Amino acid sequence: MQLGSLGSSNYRFASEVRPTFANAYHSAAKNPLGIDIDNKNIVDKAASLKGVLEGVDLRNISSQELANLGTALYQAGEISDNAVINFIVGDSNLESRDTRFDAIAFFEGGFQLTKTNRDLSSSQSIYGDALNTLYNVDKVIKNITGANVNTTA
Prior knowledge:
Helix content: 40-55%
Number of domains: 1
Mean pLDDT: 81
Radius of gyration: 14 Å
Order of helices and strands: HHEHHEHH
Strand order of the largest sheet: 1-2
Structural class: mainly alpha
Number of strands: 2
């Protein structure tokens, strides 16, 4: 797979989101997913996390699946305290934890809201960290599946 197709231009806010990585419970994995990762790290993570990420589609996932994914990645030291909390909560407006939704579009919407509503600006780093992590997880998933998918909302 050509990793160039996974570039940041495929994600709506990739140039604006920043990691605020801190995993208080587990020591961080080498080059954790919650930090900006390069193409070599994407390939390495695809190999080491294949069992956790195989079959995951962040554009069509239930809140329960996202919570389970977040918990597994957090326990592996791959994502931040903040990201795991956001993954566990997911979209709490859905009628059930099994209802499927587009997690990337959902968190992009939350990030956009923090940019346009002054009262929510303090939440921008929270959504930015979670969204940065989702983008990185999605890049690794694309590497595992060999997908060359347009990831714009």
